[in-house]
Amino acid sequence: MTKRVHAALGRPRHTADKTGRRARGIMAATAAAVALLVAATAAHGAVTDGGGAGSHPPKRIGTAPHVPAGATAAGATPSGTTLHIGVNLAPRDPKALADFVTAVSTPGNSLYHHYLAKGHFASVFGPTPATIAQVSQALKAAGLTPGKAGPDGLTIPVTATVAKASDAFDTGFRNVRLKDGTTDYMNTAAPALPANIAASVTGIVGLSDINSITSHHSSVRRAGRTSSAAGRGSRAVAPHAYSPGLCTDFTGSGLTDGTDYYSPGKLAGTYGMSSSATVGAGQTVAVFELENVDAASIAAYQSCVGTSTSVATVYVDTAAGAGAPATDGSVGVESALDIEDLIGLVPGANIIDYQGVDAQSATDQNVLDVYQRMVTDDQAQVISSSWGVCEAAENSATASAENAIFAEAAAQGQSVVAASGDDGSSDCYVSTGSTANAVDDPASQPYVTGVGGTTMTGSGSTATQKAWNNDTGGSGGGISSRWAPAVYQGGIATTAKRAVPDVSALADPYTGYPIFYQDDSVSSSPVPGIIGGTSGAAPTWAAAIVQANAGAACQANGRVGFLNNGLYKAARSSYPTNFWDVTSGTNSVYATGYTAAAGYDEVTGLGSPKEAGLITSLCAAKGTAATGASTFHPLSSPKRLLDTRNGTGWGLSSIPSTKPLVAGGTAPVRIEGGGGIPSSGVTGVVLNLTVTGTTGAGSLIAWADGTAKPSTSNLNWTGAGQTIAASSTVMVAGDGVVDLYTSSTTHLIADVQGYYTSDTAGSKYTALKPARLLDTRSKVGISTTTKITNAVVSLKVRGHGGVPTGASSVVLNLTATQTVGSGYLEAYPEGATRPTASNVNWSATGTTIPNLVVVPIGSDGNVSLYVHGTSHVIADVSGYFSTSGSAFHTVTPLRLLDTRTTTALGAGKTLVLQISGRDAIPSTGVKAVVLTVTVTGTTGSGYLTAWADGGTRPTASNLNWVQGKTIANQVIVPVGSDGKVDFYASSTTQVLADVAGYIG
Fold this sequence. Notes:
alpha+beta; 17 helices; eight-stranded mixed β-sheet; globular
């Protein structure tokens, strides 16, 4: 990680304002530094399978450290130098861990707020004992003495000399003299381990002490009667209007509460937080620190505000009395700000200061050890960190180890907040000199809530906020270079990677936080001061979550836990109620950055808290998911729930977005309560999903929000500029939302055709042997063979193809073929107004494309098919809904067939697929199955037909394609008495089949 210590009021570039502690920044490698590294690596030699680790070839893990610019060779690192190393292991099933975190964070999921009990992580998600033993044995074989794995199993500690580490990990070591005259050591190559264990190791940390971790606060300005900042003069004393109040050190200073600083009561009142001597009672909050704290300063603050908050210290890799004393006006200031801010806002809570090795001496492993101890102790429900590192300068091994630790925290129900940095959009400027856009770690970590900064004026209902950006610093924010788009940010931060910050709060030191700190050059006793930075914003948000956890709603429904899922859900449901939107200012501190705007932005995130609304959202009742046999409710006309092109269902509740869904992004679509769908009791939904404006080949996956993303697909496309649709039946979970993921950037449309509920009020399904009702190529269902151009075809349904007069809706497979230009097809009840939603789309001449539709039948027994453009049309019936028939049952999507893993389905061949008894499908009583069938690797034009095993192959088709296309379509197939279905392909193709539910 990185080490710039204590940003100064007046910007770090003003050297006169810097503190006396040494700043050691990781800079881009100069030619001399690169030569130094190459020479050192070459001197050590090539990677070999040594160390007695067995016959497996070695494999490098991660990368060597960055070489500081201007560094000069300082000789070999003494072989006897002692290293504190962590061999960090991956969780046994990272996807299962991520899915669990999603489940416990999603209302309506059966696991909602059922967090892991203390000490259970290792046995549930930690590396297996066999993995730990295997890695430990390999380390012993390499001549090392590994310690016992930590309580969560994620780290095996190793203490070794440079000589032993060099032999064991096949890397050299060199000292480098930095520009500030200090000397550090570093490994010259990425460490190597035998390949058979390397896959279990995410990184080896502690082989270098080049490091530049920074605390994100300004320098302190004295709160004396004669103090001023940037030309500000003395102010009249303001009366105490809030509790806890402040002592005369501040009220008599000539500075004004709510103008020159914010007392705890004034700040709490402005953000809608409670303010009393007992608020936060029963809760514990932990702060991450890499310095000593001055106990006398904490005591002075408590005396000033009239509190007696419990503050304990846990030492990690250090001991009481070690490290630099907190007496010089620099060391201990960060700790004082974090702890005293929390004392003022949640005086009834217990505070634990987790103190690690001093920042200027700490290695990355020392930093990891502190976070790991905070999580494995599992004493605090909320964790706050005001320290960070430029993401680009952090070693990937360290970032990966952090990620596992923070995922563990989320699984245990711990909320983690971190300051986003004080250098605006150029977070690496101080550590590398680069003005390029960059963000701060750990604020950018997916399981951490990044907190940016604001400037605030006034208080209560008259208060205003803008992005913090002046000569003291600016709100850190931007786009991560490391982490994929976060599911929880879908539709709000429409960026190609995780966006930072998530939220913001007061950070401007000109209107900052009152603290007591120790500066022996001024006084032998603690002195009052005013301070700012995102270091103040982070514990302010931590206090907001502590207050939520302590409230009646969270006490009844469970603590907040992983915060980000809840924050973004709250923004989607009622943004103005839950957040104070910050809409002005930028974070262009060293270079052009980002601009605050309505809704989410990379300067202030979602904004500042409106505590009352947030508590209601974050502490919502658990809810339950509707399950069991379900009946169908068709909509009289399709309702559009999502259209990223115009902001329908996309963005915040009050601020729509018109940006496409990015590659790897997820669009949450609210089903319950929208488009005429009831607000509860929905088990599944039939959606027509359309991608348009595609930017390249891709696929779409739909699944129930709060559940694991399946390894299936609902829609596929093969290139840029396409518009293509597919019907999908999707399970709806307890929060009434479904998620849509795309592998490439595209606009996305979702139209609901109908829904299922767990009652008997709707209609039931009867499967039919597929029959062709319309084929304009051969006068089936129509008297001409002419292509349809911008016209409506009346399709007779009742009394045809086995559809009885009592049928209310019909299931049709519609195919457009021999198209001319682009166009679309719409199906709707005859006699009804033509809808604005389409069912089949095409974008080029010569296209053949199918889609399954569920259409209510008009009072005359017919369905209307409107063709916009020119195309032949085929309509095959596969079933109908009525008061008789069988109920529908949703299942978790699962891939039942993928011939790519075996042999393609040959031309004219039939494949038999077992349905009954697989996934959650019962072994008997299944009458039909709902599948998404995909053909890919097509070798020529062709079609696919699905039917019940044991029956005669019908003349109708389910999929049609032309050579080279990948086509998906939903099918509802009767299941044979033996529980199987058959697939026939007219030309050789690969076939995939994913199940969504069954009828029975």
